[in-house]
Amino acid sequence: MPPDFLSNLYVFILAGFVGFELIKRVSPLLHTPLMSLTNALDAIVVVAAIIIAGRHETRLSVILCLIAVSASFSNMVGGFFITDRMLRMFKTGRPKKT
Questions:
Q1: Domains in the chain: boundaries
Q2: Is the Cβ–Cβ distance between 48 and 7 less than 8 Å?
Q3: Which of 9, 62, 87, 90 gives the lowest tally of CB atoms within 10 Å of its CB?
C-alpha cells in the first residue's frame, strides 16, 4: 500500500466522523438546517473529486471522480431546491408595505 493511500484513508474517516457529528446535532424537527449541512458536505465532495480527477493518475480514478462529481452536484442542487421550497412554505402572506 502506498503511504499516500493511508493518509487519504485517515482524512476520509475523519471527514466521515466530523460530518456525522455535524448532522447528528441538528434537531430532527429542523429539516432546513440539515439540508444546509448536507449541501455543504456535498460541496466539499465536489471540490475534492475535481481535484483528484484533475491529477489524471489512472483512468479508473478519473471515471470514479466524474461519477462522484455528478452525483454530489445533483444532490447539492436538489438540496438547494428543496430548502428553497421549504423556506417558501414558511413565508407569511404578502410582504408589508412601508
A1: 46-88
A2: no
A3: 90
Contacts of 76 by beta carbon, 8 Å cutoff, 6+ apart: 39, 42, 43, 46
Distance CA(65)–CA(45), nearest Å, equals 10
CA-wise closest residue to 64 among 77, 75, 76, 50: 50
Enter the pTM of the model.
0.51
What is the 3 state secondary structure string of the chain? CCHHHHHHHHHHHHHHHHHHHHHHCCCCCCHHHHHHHHHHHHHHHHHHHHHHHHHCCCHHHHHHHHHHHHHHHHHHHHHHHHHHHHHHHCCCCCCCCC
Q: Give the C-alpha separation, 95 to 91, whole Å.
A: 9
